Amino acid sequence: MQFEGIKVMFTREQVERHINTHSERSVDDENAVTVLKSFLRSNGKINTEFRSNDKWPNIDGRFELVSNPNESRRPMRNFFVQIKGSTSAIISSDNVVKYQLKDLAFPAFAVCEVTADPCILFVVLNPGKRGDEKVFYKYMSIQFLQTINFDNDSTTIEFTSADEIFNTDTSINAFAEELISIADRHSFVKRLELTEYTSKDILNLIKTCDEQLCEDIERISYDSRDQVSRRMLTKLDDFCSATLLLNNLGGDRTTLGLSWEHALTNMRTRFLSDFLQFLRYIGRRIPEEGQPERLMLKYYDYLWQMRKYLKEQFNIEVLKNLEKFPLHLDEEDKEYNTLVAKVVDSIGKEHNAFRNSRYYVQNNTPFYVDGERYFEITLQLAGMYATKYNRITVYTKECIYTNYSVQIGYSEADLKIWDKPTKIKILTNWRVSIDPTVLNKFASILGRELKISSKYGEYISLMQMLTVTGLNLLEIIDMRKIQFDSVIDEIYNSCKTTYFKDIMLLLHTRFFARSNESGRYVIRYLLLRLKEELIESVIYHDYEKPFRNRGLLLNSRCNPFDGNPLLYDLPQHRNNLNDVLKATTLKRVSDKLAYVYIKHHIETTGEIYINKDEIFSAEDCQSIMQFNENLEQWDEEQGCLLREENDLIYIDAYERDTLEILRKLRDYSNKGNEGQKQVNNKFIKANNSSFTDNLKKEALSRAFVDSKLMLIYGAAGTGKTTLMNYLSDLMSGRSKLFLAKTHTALENLQRRITSPGQNSLFSSIDSFLKSSKSSTYDLVFIDECSIIDNRTMRQLLSLISNESLLVLAGDIYQIESIEFGNWFYYAKDIIDKVSLVELDNTWRTDIESIKDLWQAVRYKDPFVTEKLVIDGPFSEKISPKLFDRTDDDEIVLCLNYDGRYGLNNINNYFQDANTASEAYAWKEWKYKIGDPILFNDTKRFPQLYNNLKGWIVDISKEEDSITFTVDIATNLTGIDARNGDFEILDFMETTTRIRFSVYENHGGTTEEEREIARMESIVPFQLAYAVSIHKSQGLEYNSVKIVIPKSNSEKVSHGVFYTAITRAKEKLRIYSSAETLDKIVKGFKSNGSKGRSLEIIKRKL
After folding, report:
1. What CA dihedral angle connects 748, 752, 756 and 762, to 10 degrees?
2. Which of 71, 178, 219, 594 has a CA between 20 and 30 Å from the CA of residue 149?
């Protein structure tokens, strides 16, 4: 299949002969002008200056586009128009209108640049029949004009439903949005030079730019990278423009505008159009000191692609010294990249069989060796029952450029790091492969029952098209009719079935870019990635409220997003901003983007209140006012207003939620439980010998005496859960509710609370909120409060009785909530001390030097570096010692999955060093007896909780299954086995030996059987020689090694570093360079102060 762009199909001489042609105006044309004026009434957005008298060259006036008449009446753009009326247009069976334009004067007018303004052709059907009028339009884009044969005297134009304008406010507003989009694109093309370039001009320009850029790069030996970058930036526009021109040189001449649009239509050259847009955005503005090199690090890959493209397509060699431009890699990174590149090259261009598993691209990182580009790609297993921890890393020269799931073929190759042999995966081929189950579920949202499978010819053809072109389904349904039909024909011209074709036609008709149908934003957003877990979260089930558009099988939780996608997330999902902008096609959303920017700033800094003058211009402030004016009442009620106060700006909901939480907590703290003092004294007397920590004993003596609230703060290992267990025992016989944000924390509570009582409930916070039932429990415990965001906590408190006793525990110095959550941090300073308990005796370790380091890091002591270097010492440079296992209970903590010191590689290094058994391969993973593991959250094995430690003690493999015997670090009983999909083999003092199998997915005859088969095909654990720091939260090990390479150091916040070091019980080692560690420690002072906002909140309370 081939989907190429269109070259210039006409000469200026062919076009100019039409400029002087002229056709008489008919009565239908005159009536059409009247109808169109009536249709385009738009409260000042579209101001018409049409004329019905006969003029040359068939131009019927113009109209002005005002993007926001409430803000300014100044026109954004003028549009020239031709208006034709017809009662004889042909309407086909698929509702395509075919109209014959009898002369080509107006298209010629647009081609010959008689005007720099966009040109629109309007065709009005039945202009003399009141109520039967239909209005269609066609933008005279370069691509459309290239489809006209100017050797003829007329042309037939097709209009689809996407080109129709209805006589309603909604339709006219949508048309105005489309005009804004046209104006933006047209403006960019028109800003490009209109000069016609010859091949000689273009080749001279490329040669000159290349000489200058190479000369600039040579200056790196005595100028800084920033200075060299500043010089190079001034030449990039000409260099990119010349390459674009050469790419479109079909004959002897071309223009930059035509070349830019042509490059957009070809997957191999789209990067040129993107690059030029970035460069034109910079324009002649001079970046501040330090910023040019940031731009050049981004643009390096564009220059590499241009060099490769010019060599392969035109045999022109440029930028021979590009590799001299410093990317500032560590020497170790360079060495590793070189080794990997050699292995990739040794594999050659072989193709391997595609694996059955499907993956999403999590990271796609380029690196360069000897002028060649390579990729390190992290892939995450796709599917409802996979977790984010099911990842692999592959290396390749192939760029995977799709957001959809893919299947891969790869070879395994040997690699030596520090003389330690390991294996890496070399990607040899890939293809887009969306799970047919996902397509079927998506179709069900549209009310269509679909049972397509991967064996269908149409499925294979569709996946091939998505692979070859790099297109996604949203881009396809947004195509004009002629392009859309061409793509559909390419897919289905030899297919026996057309089930998904009907879905594509429905999407193109109802959910194209200018659609006004309710649910359009949800549907369009889903199309960009087609992730099953997201589709499941939005799909309607019987126990939920339906979406407002009953024609779509969506749940009501999608309503906010569909109303305003920039303000609200889809259920159980954090929106991707770039995807939202693509799905909405909103080109001019400065007011809404101001909200997004303020929200990002608040969540990044932890400060609710932003100093307006520091980050906003007068124009930004104007957009903030406009944003507020355009908000619906419901959005205001949700707290979306941007408020200004004393030169500070903030989002209403962030302040409101914080104040409401703290006021409610203060109310709890103002009154105690009568008679509680006597109960406490009796309990302490009866259990006095059990208390080893006086702080806990003192906390128990005053619990709920003068306050119904207890706030428990403490570092890792200080016994927060132990105190909660004491409080549970203290209040025996009372009804209790135990809540936690994560399943790991909840399962920890279930294990550690020894006697919760019969009338008690353990629940995740999300599950509790979904029930939407008020709580009447006597005592409510909430753990890991530092990771509970404000919005969730406000909802939670609204469901808890004012008469309940409340226990809240957490550590404000560990990793914070994903969404904005400052309430637990503020409560420590604001709530009366009678409700506060701070535990500082660490029970996790007896090593004083480790305790001192934890304390110094926790409170950002100025002697952190000295304690790291002298007391342990706890730090050293990265060396082979990292791979010397010093304890059976040891873990390596990593920042991410990819890179030389990423989680995947380090697990491979240690596993390859494990000689306890041979390796058993299963899909893309391998396992050995003796491997340490951590269980992931899985529906199949609820008893094997997330982060449960285990060790593989035996493995057996059949043709379509693999069976694991595992020792797990918890005590199970026979009841657990009856309710679980595993067998218990032995009960030991602190562990249990279990056995279970994982199977090939062979599907099933019913939907239920297919779901079970998919669930049973997932290995429920991950290798745990190394884990991510985030995954380690809540765990402890005898020996902890933390590896922090320079390339990832910016990801290490104070909370991340503190969480990592507090996992250790006996041994702690941080592997990093002195410079990197010094930068991290210095960064502690500047991150997450929240000071300004805390003082303002105190005043407002």
Report:
1. 0
2. 178
